[in-house]
Amino acid sequence: MKKLVAFGILALSLVGTVSAQVKPEDQIKYRQAGYSFMAWNMGKIKANLDGEFNVQQVQAAASAVAAIAGSGMGALYGPGTESDIGDRKTRVKPEAFQNMADLGKLATDFNAAAANLANAAAKGDKAAVQKAFGETGATCKACHDKYRLD
Amino acid sequence: MKKLVAFGILALSLVGTVSAQVKPEDQIKYRQAGYSFMAWNMGKIKANLDGEFNVQQVQAAASAVAAIAGSGMGALYGPGTESDIGDRKTRVKPEAFQNMADLGKLATDFNAAAANLANAAAKGDKAAVQKAFGETGATCKACHDKYRLD
Q1: B18 part of a folded domain
Q2: CATH number of the domain bearing residue B111
């Protein structure tokens, strides 16, 4: 728990650093790109769990999800990204920006689950991947239910 | 060279498999998301090379670039993704789809360079990261010059 809080603060602190180098509209674009690319890779893992289990494809997909999750996306929630900027729409609820420590905790839960998913995939253990995939999806949903607009 | 050709054929073969599970318009969306997220991470590495070198941030960014590069994006160049689909515009030149083996070779060069970049970052060697970053950027440019619309 201490660790989660510490990570939450880390995620929060990142906002003040890297985001300064990236325009708010680009922060929204990049965070959407990250979630979109993770969605493709989660879909590939699901397809492998439901059908023929291609270990190489699952490992590659899980590595991409874990690396994107661990890339410091907290930096893409900087000042000015709380609402739409021109044609660049955001589905993040404004409340998220008033609860950055909570957002950081949810992000930390997701990072940990994605890392477990990548580890399970690296072992080529389908049952472990199935379990870790479900746990990762649950951390996605936890944040979507709380901070994503319908 | 044999290896590059083999990878080219692998990248090509992926198009026939995974893409079948993803609608053409989503294949375009996901490939654009992957390139966009890599661009953010390449930008972070450049900022670290030009300014204060934060090893953790460079390692996280290089891992994301390498994992996305290695995630089998060849599957996102499937049939029907050669041109715009409604509002979903693509900047990939039609010629790319008539030269999939060449596209596969360029992708393989990029994957190898991105893997080297991640390895250099893992060692925390700024000079090696600088060299690998330049080599990775060159493989990006090689494909953009040949197959990306201005």
Answers
A1: no
A2: 1.20.120.10
Name every chain B residue with its beta carbon within 8 A of the beta carbon of A47. Answer: 18, 21
> What are the pLDDT digits (tens) for A28-62?
999 999 999 999 999 999 999 999 999 999 999 99
ipTM for the complex shown: 0.88
A45 within a domain of the structure (yes/no):
yes
What total of structural domains would you count in chain B? Answer: 1
CA–CA distance, B8 with A137 (Å, rounded to integer): 33
Q: CA angle, B21 as apex, A63 and A67 as ends, to 5°? A: 15
State the residue range of the domain holding B50: 2-13+24-147
Residue located via tokens 């729409």: A89
Q: What tens digit of pLDDT does each residue of B16-58 get?
A: 454 447 999 999 999 999 999 999 999 999 999 999 999 999 9
A70 Cα to chain B: minimum distance (Å): 6
A43/B21 touch (CB, cutoff 8 Å), yes or no: yes
Closest CA to B35 of B144, B145, B150, B149: B144
